[in-house]
DNA sequence: CTAGCGTCA
DNA sequence: GTATTGACGCTAG
């Protein structure tokens, strides 16, 4: 039914039906007639309304422990109701509109409140839209109370390599499995179908797919992970996406100009020392200048080559080696740094800006390891390190000035609020210590004087006092540790270490000697993966690795490294998500705390906290 | 070494 | 002219 045509009594009845419902299956529909079930619809189309299938009887009596053999979706739902809620209004009919609008959100509010599962494909988008449309009526803490189920996330838990399963794919997979359902070929070309009847059928299918997925999750031991971690996260991400982060617009414009000027200078310098004009951003043209004209690679032994075409690489490692032979490499290196800074972190950020604010889009199913990913902007990838550039100033007094540009400072907290970050320290290494029970590694963590493992290791390896360990040393130590434990080859480690491959392999040897149990752990997880075909994280997250028994050496060893890495990185992702859920719920439960989550940077949570609440919140 | 995303050719 | 791919460089561990 369309709620616009309902009388008072009918509305009351509808609310009563909702009260008794056992599940809701819902999707948003857009201006262009598409719905959330139409794979990868564009965000440009605005939301027209919401269609809800109200399930009043259940084909699956109790959700967790049902048997899936008797699913007869086509005949068993006479009591189910399909309702259409319009959320967008023309300016006509002021009076009636108000009434409709109010009733619409009454319905939606009750759906959220009554703790009955709301099944939605891409539920995060649904919740976010609700928060955006009814921002004045519904607080984010109320959305946090709802119970949502997302089949897409369920499917991803079962197969995390399949990073974007579409609705159509799920239908195919889970419908043709038990028995073929009257496959009217409407789902091969459903894209423009605005018929609600058809949508009703699709929602019914979605419901059944979710039930099948729920069953599979249980069979595979993923149900708890799904319910306690991934489902609550949907709401957290929806709330996070509705929060806007303020960006210093003027500063952004100014730094863009400064960087642009510096790029021009560097371009001129490069042309001068090269003796010809060429495009600095083109690796092809650079290769011609560097190696065909100047023949710099002949003065230097062993230079990296590109994987496919076996051309001489123009990568950072090669350019670093060529630094002393010619002034050009250094200029290119700085050009690339400044260019990256400008295009990605400054201009890229400006592109994402709406009225002085940005808000990332979070993808819960974007990785194979359970980590989150973000885009527009990728707030997890914004450079930490500032760069220094010399700015020629044409103001009298001083000729030039050194300015430092650090992209992270471009984000500013609201007035009266401050950013608060909470992060795990060395989380993957701690997990590795725990899983391998390596005594030497465990000892390092238990010693109270070790405040920073990587700094300690850096001072140990370099033979310098820990106070003198610089940031770069620590960073290098960190890269080395992770490289070695995840199975780096000697060549790659040599690049990392800045030594010869021979020394690198000796380093690997002594590392393995000192931390024997790490090697045992590695072997054990590869062995388990070979037997079962998949690996498992602390919270039971799974990653099937089809290539683990492959004939091809390259493919097989890659799968082996992925297996080891997954167990550690996936477990770290589990813990970070647990932290997110726990902190979020404690804020929701608190009557006075208002702290908002801004971003998750894998092992770090960034909040915006009211100044007066910093103590209590932290 | 493993995960990602953005930019450029 | 538009779409895809590989190389590169930044993030996180």
Automatic annotation (TrEMBL):
<dbReference type="InterPro" id="IPR040940">
    <property type="entry name" value="DNA_pol_P_Exo"/>
</dbReference>
<keyword id="KW-0234">DNA repair</keyword>
<feature type="domain" description="DNA-directed DNA polymerase family A palm">
    <location>
        <begin position="404"/>
        <end position="613"/>
    </location>
</feature>
<dbReference type="Pfam" id="PF18049">
    <property type="entry name" value="DNA_pol_P_Exo"/>
</dbReference>
<keyword id="KW-0548">Nucleotidyltransferase</keyword>
<keyword id="KW-0235">DNA replication</keyword>
<keyword id="KW-0238">DNA-binding</keyword>
<dbReference type="GO" id="GO:0006302">
    <property type="term" value="P:double-strand break repair"/>
</dbReference>
<dbReference type="InterPro" id="IPR001098">
    <property type="entry name" value="DNA-dir_DNA_pol_A_palm_dom"/>
</dbReference>
<dbReference type="GO" id="GO:0003887">
    <property type="term" value="F:DNA-directed DNA polymerase activity"/>
</dbReference>
<protein>
    <recommendedName>
        <fullName>DNA-directed DNA polymerase</fullName>
        <ecNumber>2.7.7.7</ecNumber>
    </recommendedName>
</protein>
<dbReference type="GO" id="GO:0003677">
    <property type="term" value="F:DNA binding"/>
</dbReference>
<keyword id="KW-0808">Transferase</keyword>
<dbReference type="InterPro" id="IPR043502">
    <property type="entry name" value="DNA/RNA_pol_sf"/>
</dbReference>
<dbReference type="InterPro" id="IPR036397">
    <property type="entry name" value="RNaseH_sf"/>
</dbReference>
<keyword id="KW-0239">DNA-directed DNA polymerase</keyword>
<dbReference type="GO" id="GO:0006261">
    <property type="term" value="P:DNA-templated DNA replication"/>
</dbReference>
<comment type="similarity">
    <text>Belongs to the DNA polymerase type-A family.</text>
</comment>
<dbReference type="Pfam" id="PF00476">
    <property type="entry name" value="DNA_pol_A"/>
</dbReference>
<keyword id="KW-0227">DNA damage</keyword>
<dbReference type="InterPro" id="IPR002298">
    <property type="entry name" value="DNA_polymerase_A"/>
</dbReference>
């Amino acid at each position: 039914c369309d709620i616009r045509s309902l009388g008072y009594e009918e509305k009351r009845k509808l609310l009563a039906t909702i009260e008794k419902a056992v599940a809701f299956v819902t999707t948003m529909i857009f201006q262009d007639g598409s719905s959330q079930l139409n794979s990868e619809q564009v965000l440009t189309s605005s939301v027209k309304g919401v269609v809800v299938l109200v399930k009043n009887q259940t084909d699956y009596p109790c959700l967790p422990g049902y048997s899936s053999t008797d699913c007869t979706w086509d005949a068993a739902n006479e009591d189910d109701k399909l309702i259409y809620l319009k959320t967008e209004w023309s300016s006509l009919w002021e009076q009636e509109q108000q009434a409709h609008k109010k009733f619409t959100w009454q319905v939606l509010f009750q759906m959220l409140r009554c703790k009955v599962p709301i099944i939605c494909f891409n539920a995060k988008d649904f919740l976010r839209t609700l928060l955006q449309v009814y921002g004045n009526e519904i607080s984010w803490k109320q959305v946090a109370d709802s119970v949502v189920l997302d089949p897409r996330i369920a499917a991803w838990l079962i197969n995390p390599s399949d990073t974007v399963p579409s609705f159509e794919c799920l239908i195919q997979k889970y419908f043709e499995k038990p028995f073929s359902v009257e496959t009217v070929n409407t789902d091969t070309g459903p894209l423009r179908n605005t018929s609600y009847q058809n949508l009703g059928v699709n929602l019914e299918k979605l419901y059944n797919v979710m039930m099948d997925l729920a069953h599979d999750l249980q069979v595979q031991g993923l149900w708890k992970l799904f319910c306690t971690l991934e489902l609550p996260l949907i709401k957290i991400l929806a709330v996070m996406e509705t929060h806007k982060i303020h960006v210093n617009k003027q500063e952004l414009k100014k730094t863009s100009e400064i960087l642009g000027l510096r790029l021009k200078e560097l371009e001129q310098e490069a042309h001068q020392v090269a003796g010809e004009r060429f495009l600095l951003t083109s690796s092809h043209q650079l290769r011609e200048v560097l190696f065909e004209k100047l023949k710099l690679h002949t003065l230097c032994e062993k230079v990296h080559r590109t994987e496919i075409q076996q051309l001489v690489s123009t990568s950072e490692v090669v350019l670093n080696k060529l630094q002393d032979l010619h002034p050009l490499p250094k200029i290119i290196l700085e050009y690339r740094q400044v260019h990256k800074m400008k295009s990605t972190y400054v201009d890229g950020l400006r592109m994402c800006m709406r009225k002085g604010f940005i808000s990332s889009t979070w993808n819960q199913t974007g990785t194979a390891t359970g980590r989150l990913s973000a885009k527009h902007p990728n707030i997890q990838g914004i450079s930490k390190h500032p760069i220094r550039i010399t700015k020629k100033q044409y103001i009298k007094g001083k000729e030039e000035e050194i300015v430092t540009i650090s992209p992270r400072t471009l984000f500013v907290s609201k007035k009266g609020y401050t950013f608060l970050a909470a992060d795990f320290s060395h989380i993957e290494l701690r997990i590795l210590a725990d899983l391998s029970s390596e005594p030497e590694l465990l000892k390092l963590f238990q010693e109270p004087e070790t405040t920073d493992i990587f700094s300690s290791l850096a001072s140990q390896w370099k033979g310098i006092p820990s106070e003198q360990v610089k940031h770069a040393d620590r960073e290098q130590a960190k890269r080395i540790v992770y490289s070695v434990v995840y199975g780096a080859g000697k060549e790659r480690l040599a690049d990392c270490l800045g030594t010869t491959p021979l020394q690198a392999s000796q380093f690997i040897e002594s590392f393995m000697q000192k931390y024997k149990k790490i090697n045992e752990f590695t072997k054990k997880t590869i062995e388990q993966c070979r037997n079962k075909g998949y690996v498992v994280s602390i919270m039971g997250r799974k990653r099937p690795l089809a290539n683990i028994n492959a004939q091809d050496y390259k493919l097989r060893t890659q799968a082996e490294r992925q297996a080891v890495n997954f167990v550690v990185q996936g477990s770290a992702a589990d813990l970070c998500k647990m932290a997110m859920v726990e902190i979020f719920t404690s804020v929701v439960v608190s009557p006075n705390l208002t702290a908002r989550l801004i971003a998750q940077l894998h092992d770090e949570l960034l909040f915006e906290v009211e100044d007066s609440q910093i103590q209590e919140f932290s």
